[in-house]
Specification:
Substrate Binding Domain Of Dnak, Chain:A, Domain 2, mainly alpha, 6 helices, elongated
Amino acid sequence: MKQWLCAIGIVLPIWSSAQDEKIVCRENGTQLELNQCAADEYTRTDNELNQVWKQIQLKYADQSLFLKKLKAAQLLWLQFRDAEMEAKFPVDKQENPRFQYGSVYPMCWAGYKAALTSARVRDLKVWLTGEQEGDVCMGSVKLSDELSKIK
């Protein structure tokens, strides 16, 4: 038992310091590195989504009905995203997805989730960038000129 505790005492600090190092993303990296890079990319896009969401809340603070409807749409989009992920990588709850999809599973899962999130960011940004005057189908999106005055 003492030997195991000593081994853990030696390995744990080495392992934790390795975890603190920034992984360099490169095409020919190890699978662990590629998995981490994909996870980092998803985190980046999810953070961007949250920032865009906050900016929309601020810019459209005077439009409570719009914000209520957009929130409902966002909640449904989150359900869609999760269902899309499950459809792309279906797995029984008792099964480990790595057995079915291999060691690339974390990379593929995070990459697809990042792609879906990035598309949603693009779709939401229209409420921040606005539309040009003359677009008769712009609905609740403000004109580009109006948004520049708000800044």
